[in-house]
TrEMBL record:
PANTHER family: 12S RRNA N4-METHYLCYTIDINE METHYLTRANSFERASE, S-ADENOSYL-METHYLTRANSFERASE MRAW. This is Ribosomal RNA small subunit methyltransferase H. It catalyses: cytidine(1402) in 16S rRNA + S-adenosyl-L-methionine = N(4)-methylcytidine(1402) in 16S rRNA + S-adenosyl-L-homocysteine + H(+). Signal peptide: none annotated. One of its GO terms (cellular component) is cytoplasm. InterPro entries: RsmH (IPR002903), SAM-dep_MeTrfase_MraW_recog (IPR023397), SAM-dependent_MTases_sf (IPR029063). It is an enzyme of class 2 (transferase). The gene is rsmH. It comes from Nonomuraea phyllanthi.
Length: 321
């Protein structure tokens, strides 16, 4: 990660809206917020600057993100706890930090700009690099292992479910054929195989055909959906009364999981037909967003990487007795 990224050019996605939504929850005397996807620390820096009493717990599974943000947030070092971990371990991170409740949580899912821009990390089909795609460079599983060891059935499922690739069986089939000749170890060779597997008529439309396969492999390598499935409920459970969560997701599966987790907690689950509502069945949260909010046209013009962003937020309105 370069020293100059994060402060210029890389504007955090929907920053003003994130600050606005979290502000009411962070106005107490000693508020605590969790940034579950610290990245370059852009959202975190703005939150710390806006709330002088705020303590921020920042989590990222990428050691370079922690290193970079430690430097960037050094003016606030007495108010930050930065942890190299998966957000899937959020409950443990909070326990270790001695926090039972939090006032805010922010999820800005997906990859960071440096992960995409640094060729050697192997996330991008536009550079030739080893097939890596690990956010946590200390983990074992790489994209190379997925591509060279998973069965045709497993590859098809990943490409279809995580990449929404219509031609998943064809791409998986050609991967299996090609890897039998020689292991597939580079982003370029994989991108070439995908291009060859996609019918020529379809290739002419819809951007680089490798995009969907690369997204699917990245989600698999980093177990992104299972981390979110664990992290979001853990954050919601930890929120104090009036506490708020904001989630920025970048593809439909993340957004669907987010929507499900939030709506499950904002529904009254009383059996129908009861004369009085049962307190135990009253919702513990209320939605702060109607549907998913999108970035403005103006933001999209400034930052094309915000294009697929979807924002949802909720507030805790009841605690268990
Ligand atoms: C879009 S970036 C966050 C950018 C950040 N909000 C900012 O303003 O600079 C997403 C970050 O989440 C991290 N990440 C993705 N999945 C994670 C997980 N399960 N646990 C912890 N960090 C994760 C990535 O390593 C990446 O640094």
């Amino acid at each position: 990660m370069h020293d100059d990224v994060g402060t210029g050019g890389h504007v955090p996605v929907m920053l003003e809206r994130v600050l606005e939504l979290l502000a009411p929850a962070l106005s107490g005397p000693a508020p605590v917020v969790v940034d579950a996807n610290l990245g370059l620390g852009g959202h975190s820096e703005a939150l710390l600057a806006a709330h002088p009493a705020l303590h921020l717990i920042g989590i990222d599974r990428d050691p370079f993100a922690i290193e970079h943000s430690t430097r960037r947030l050094s003016p606030y070092s007495d108010r930050t706890t930065l942890v190299h971990a998966s957000s899937g371990d959020l409950a443990e991170v909070l326990a270790r930090a001695g926090r039972t409740t939090i006032d805010g949580a922010l999820f800005d899912l997906g990859v960071s700009s440096p992960q995409l821009d640094e060729a050697e990390r192997g996330f991008a089909y536009s550079y030739d690099a080893p097939l890596d795609m690990r956010m946590d460079t200390e983990q074992e599983l790489t994209a190379e292992q997925v591509v060279n060891t998973y069965s045709a059935g497993e590859l098809t499922r990943i490409l279809r479910d995580y990449g929404e690739e219509r031609f998943a069986p064809r791409v998986a089939g050609l991967i299996i054929k090609e890897r039998a000749k020689e292991a597939i170890t580079s982003t370029k060779r994989l991108a070439d195989i995908v291009r060859e597997a996609i019918p020529a008529a379809t290739r002419r439309t819809g951007g680089n055909p490798a995009k969907r396969t690369f997204q699917a492999l990245r989600i698999e390598v980093n177990a992104e959906l299972s981390a979110l499935e664990a992290a979001l409920p853990a954050a919601l459970d930890a929120l104090a009364l009036g506490g708020r969560v904001v989630v920025l997701s970048y593809h439909s599966l993340e957004d669907r999981l987010t929507k499900q987790a939030l709506t499950a907690r904002t529904r009254d689950t009383s059996p129908p037909g009861l004369p009085v509502p049962l307190p135990a069945h009253q919702p513990r949260f209320r939605l702060l967003t109607r549907g998913a909010e999108l970035p403005s046209e103006e933001e999209l013009a400034r930052n094309p990487r915000a294009a697929s962003a979807r924002l949802r937020a909720a507030e805790r309105i009841r605690v268990d007795d």
